[in-house]
Amino acid sequence: MWQAPEPLLFEMSSPGRTACSLPELDVPETPLPEGMVRDEVNLPEISELELVRHYTRLSQKNFSIDTHFYPLGSCTMKYNPKVNETAAAMQGFARSHPLQPRWLAQGNLGLMYQLQEALKEIAGFAGVSLQPAAGAHGEFAGVLIMRAYHLDRGDTKRTKMLIPDSAHGTNPASVAMSGFEAVQLPSDERGNVDLAALKAACDDTVVGLMLTNPNTLGLFEEQIEEVTATIHNCGGLVYGDGANLNALMGVARPGDLGFDVMHFNLHKTFTTPHGGGGPGSGPVGVTEQLAPFLPGPIAARGDDDYKLVMPEKSIGRLKAFNGNFGVLIRALTYIAMLGDEGLRDVTFNAVLNANYLKARLENVYPVKYGRTCMHEFVAMGDIAEGVHTMDIAKRLIDYGFHPPTVYFPLIVHEALMIEPTETESKETLDAFVDALLKIAEEGKQNADLLHNAPHTTPVTRLDEVSAARKPVLCYRG
Amino acid sequence: MNLDANAKYQDSHEWARQEGDLIVCGITDHAQDSLSDVVYVEFPEVGASLGKGEVFGVVESVKAASDLYMPMSGEIVEVNEALEDEPELVNSDPFGAGWMIKFTPSDPAQWDALLSGDEYQKAVEAEG
């Protein structure tokens, strides 16, 4: 059923209403200096109750993993267990301060140390820094580490970073931020990195390769060991985009596959708040030869306590204090609650759920690369004359599902990128498939029903084109 | 597929047309159709010298942002300022009012290496 849009506070304003009453002035009144008094500010005037109701109503319109299925490909919108919040709210953590002396911060430092150790074990690395504040920040850290490693060896001619055409857009952005040049590699017909093109691009000007495995098509790189060896043979390093670790955790370790450096998205794989509810956290893990370059400080063991140390040739600080500490608590809680077998089951179920959806959908929504997928897959949404992926996505909202990621990766025409995660039941997955199949029927019968969707939301189809061409950025009451 | 019989093409989906001593350049009808509604075009500085294959600008649609590549080397003499207010011209008239840049070619022989309409069409079909 259609719901009315919530008015703006400006529209609810009535002169003289106020949400607070100030005490009487008990000092002499002093006017503001000439020219400093403005009367055109137009602040809303609202009672306390109206204000509370306004924000409560807005909060109830939130679409979140706690209310709905959220198969947003590449984003790993899994359930965030509430026990994480219990741990993060413990007074010893919640009331601590980053400037507390070492002896008074042992619990916090111990938590950081344990999380570093757990991430090292999960990904097969020798060192981890918890500094980076989010995924792209972790990528940036990784590329700076690669740069520092080459410069430390006196190798100054490496300027090119190889990046497959299926990569996340943040990869070339991190490369540009680090002063390097991004060189795009094509994918082969099975969705892997084109090995011949990779070999042709490898020379002594290559910093390394940035690779997501499984890649953004949800496909495991079938020649991963040959890919990493090819880069190593030309003196380069392999960066792993850890965005898709949810498909490997407990089963394969990037460090064992030949990756030299990788960021973790704690806010994806390790159930910390995410999307608008962040902040994120993007720790970076490295092999032994790169550990001296990690951003710091990192937690270490002292003689009989924990301490913070700066790695020997560190690229430096990337964030004030110790990363997004509150997020680290939640990630370690998740890891500790599940243990190694639990984390492995997460991977198995994430992959199983994605393949179940793919098997039920692919006759109607074609999947470009017909391989068994990992934790996500990319279908195509132009399933009827005049129907586009965007129409399918918008119509799903009417059925109570968050749309999948659309039009990414760029190498798939009309991409519809679906990632169910491990936390959904078979009933939910079936309901989602049923909705998609019904939408496909609707598209054939009455394409306009899809073109005008969603129909049930406070605002229906947004005019994204006008919004982008002629943006209105201020309230014009 | 709509093509301009007087233009030549490159597989990154730009067209080029000779106009006196100048080359006019834009993106193809196939490119605008794939991008969907164009919302912004970023231009080079007039006077900039760019080599063949270098990025001369960016076209942004509601779906994606794509780099634009010089079909030949040359010096930019004019950009289509009408697109600043009406980027939709790229969609409605890609080979005409939606042109993007004019440049003086520094190596006119590069013209011969560009694709004909037929060759471009085959390249698009091969892309799938």
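Residues 24 and 39 of chain B are 21 Å apart (CA to CA).
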